[in-house]
From TrEMBL:
Zn(2+) 2 binds at D150, H177, H230. GO terms for cellular component: cytoplasm. Belongs to the metallo-dependent hydrolases superfamily. DHOase family. Class I DHOase subfamily. Pathway: Pyrimidine metabolism; UMP biosynthesis via de novo pathway; (S)-dihydroorotate from bicarbonate: step 3/3. Binds 2 Zn(2+) ions per subunit. This is Dihydroorotase. It comes from Catellatospora bangladeshensis. Residues 47-234 form the Dihydroorotase catalytic domain. It comes from the Bacteria. GO terms for biological process: 'de novo' UMP biosynthetic process; purine nucleobase catabolic process. Keywords: Hydrolase, Metal-binding, Pyrimidine biosynthesis, Zinc. The keyword Zinc applies.
Length: 425
């Protein structure tokens, strides 16, 4: 394994420094470093961040390899600056057994571009009726710690309580897709003035908020860890803020698209903007940004949801919800937060690594740490081209948009997975 000498990188946006990567770790950080035989990477003007960690990625394998595979999703992740992603369980078959999570884990290792950490389903087949084999998945080679029925809500409070009790034993976490299904039957978009105007059935904010309110109480009662997926409303931010103030063990994520886009996008009837939970109002967007800044929302997670053309290029009502995220997350967050590098590192690397229990990730870029990092050119703006993305699917809501921040290089345990903006496999 060749040593790598990164010259002149601004760690977390600070003063230029050199980083020597050796044997999978950062061997040295300093100025004027030299290393015989090392491959030199000129990082003048580039910002170094710990490799990003995505707690919410849909990789679609097994089952929908036409939309994404573990390999293609891993390429997209590396190009987005990620060194670890957590793969959601709504595959086909569902990742509700040790066998399936081990398969996804192995596929991730074979791809070798990011660490793929499978998430296990909470209930068998995501059907919300009985608990899946949580213990078997936790004890498997994939060492599952996050369980989620994402795409569906664990709506039955008794089942949710049992799941929280079960994972408490090994400090696992239930990642809830908060959507009271009885309040969203037939829903197509956010319930509000735009849905009324377009005549589309609405998905009211209270469908999310009522489940989060219930779940923080359940988590408090059980003393277990709850993680709230893709928070999308101002009311949800308030509930989580109050729960945290009371000491409830709750963490939360927001997606880049909920930080930027609003429900007016549906006026185009372009299903690329159809997503679950739906795009909301500008008031919600502002509250989510505030929640992200003040730490009520712990992390940014992509909810990367690739869909094949036939599932997206159709009538709004028939289109599947979901949008791509991995390759555009950092640029969108940079656009929203500005160059607050330490905050970005916290919300996109350190905190997600902590929540997921991924010890090798989200570390400070200091001597001795695993060499998982990414180099970003903050000054280059680029235009998002759906067919130019590495994902097998093209359903990005940012097509044609010019965004700041280009990922120049990514390193996984000292091995370049992206160099010069090009994936290495
Ligand atoms: N977030 C989405 O809009 N879609 C997700 C599942 C889901 O949460 O509905 C998907 O798997 O496509």
């Amino acid at each position: 394994m060749t040593d790598i000498l990164i010259k002149g990188a601004r760690v977390l946006g600070g003063e230029p420094a050199d980083l020597l990567l050796r044997d999978g770790r950062i061997a040295e950080v300093g100025t004027g470093l030299t290393a015989e035989g090392a491959e030199v990477v000129d990082a003048t003007g580039l910002v170094a961040l710990p490799g990003l960690v995505d707690l919410h990625t849909h990789l679609r394998e097994p089952g929908r390899e036409d939309a994404e595979t573990v390999y293609t999703g891993s390429r997209a992740a590396a190009l987005g600056g990620y060194t670890a992603v957590c793969a959601m369980a709504n595959t086909s078959p569902v990742a509700d057994t040790a066998g399936v999570v081990e398969q996804v884990y192995r596929l991730g290792q074979e791809a070798g571009l990011v660490d793929v950490q499978p998430i296990g389903a909470v209930t068998v087949g995501l059907a919300g009726e009985r608990l899946a084999e949580l213990g078997a998945m936790a004890d498997s080679a994939a060492r599952v710690r996050i369980f989620s029925d994402d795409g569906f809500c664990v709506a039955d409070p008794r089942l949710m309580r049992r799941a929280l009790e079960y994972v408490k034993a090994f400090d696992g976490v239930i990642a809830q897709h908060a959507e009271e299904p009885r309040l969203t039957q037939g829903a197509q978009m956010h319930e509000g003035d735009v849905s009324a105007k377009l005549g589309l059935t609405g998905w009211p904010a209270v469908a999310e908020e009522s489940i989060i309110a219930r779940d923080v109480l359940l988590a408090e009662h059980v003393g277990a860890r709850l993680h709230v997926c893709h928070v999308s409303t101002a009311g949800s931010v308030d509930i989580i803020r109050a729960a945290k103030a009371r000491g409830v063990r709750v963490t939360a994520e927001v997606t880049p698209h909920h930080l930027l886009l609003t429900h007016e996008k549906a006026e185009s009837y372009d299903p690329v903007y159809k997503v679950n939970p739906p795009l909301r109002t500008n008031t919600d967007v502002q509250a989510l940004r505030e929640g992200l800044r003040d730490g009520t929302i712990d992390i940014v997670a992509t909810d990367h949801a690739p869909h094949a053309a036939e599932d997206k290029e159709c009538e709004w009502a028939h289109a599947r919800p979901g949008m791509l995220g991995l390759e555009t997350a950092l640029p969108i967050v940079l656009d929203v937060l500005g160059e607050q590098w330490d905050l970005i590192a916290e919300r996109m690397s350190r905190a997600p690594a902590r929540i997921a229990g991924l010890d090798g990730h989200g570390n400070d870029l200091v001597a001795g740490a695993p060499a998982n990092l990414t180099l970003i050119d903050p000054t280059t703006r680029w235009t998002v081209e759906p067919t130019g993305l590495a994902s097998l699917s093209h359903n990005t809501p940012y097509a044609g948009m010019t965004v700041p921040g280009r990922i120049v290089a990514t390193f996984l345990r000292g091995v370049p997975t992206v160099l010069d903006g090009k994936v290495q496999k």
